[in-house]
Amino acid sequence: MDKGVLGRGLGSLIPNLSSQNQPAAEIFSGDVSAEKVIQAPLEKIERNPFQPRDNFDHEELEDLIESIKKHGIIQPLIVTKTATGYQLIAGERRLKSAQILGLPTAPVIVRSAQAIEKLELALVENIQRQNLNPIEEALAYHKLIDEFSLTQEEVGQRMGKKRATIANSLRLLDLPVEIQQALISRQITSGHAKVILSQETNQARLRLFKKIIDSTLSVRATEHELKRVRVKSYQRVLTHDVETQAQEDRLRQALGTKVSIIKKNDRGQINIEFYSAEELNHLTDKIAP
Question: Which positions are annotated as active-site residues?
């Protein structure tokens, strides 16, 4: 993730974002020696309601639990003060592990954060650690847009990602539930999902999904299958020569969206897809600035 494009709120809350190898938990706490670490009762620490992550890998938690058994919680949790105790900002896995172990207290650093900053902090921690599955990540972006009236561009700026990346992530929520579950359980990848989304109907998407599962298709093999036979209303078979494929790739890269070229002899058409009014405006500005 490009850490130089984070929002101003994050910049003031998360110091020293330049070290790529620095653990996310250490980035969140900054210079621990310069901040007061206190022991807080676990029953007084409530889960962050804006925490996007719902699924935890049991094996990952077991490793962390064993580490805490031997060494304790080395990195303090980041919390904010509430009327009844504390609310977690960062350190979800450490808190859950401490609760499983039945620890009475955990080391914490108290910081002030507004609701959007809490969500941004939780998102950054999880995305940096690559703990979110693709659907959880998409839901988190949707929460930023829906609850805080942010545009895709603004979410991208806060998360250090391109607007097209945010848009593609949000599109995963348009997939049938069965396919979303496969993404959550890692049966398929985001690359597979991107190809599946190129199908126009849920029926066609589910048909392609089942073929991927049944034939254990890689992303490249799925793309090849889709190019070989395009299931459209007129059941037309599209064949691409190398030159046409290269032209499609250049257009996709330049516009940041799906582009297809349909040729018949020396004539044809270029189809440019968009998935929201915001994306249409963005494409218009690119093509006709």
Answer: 92
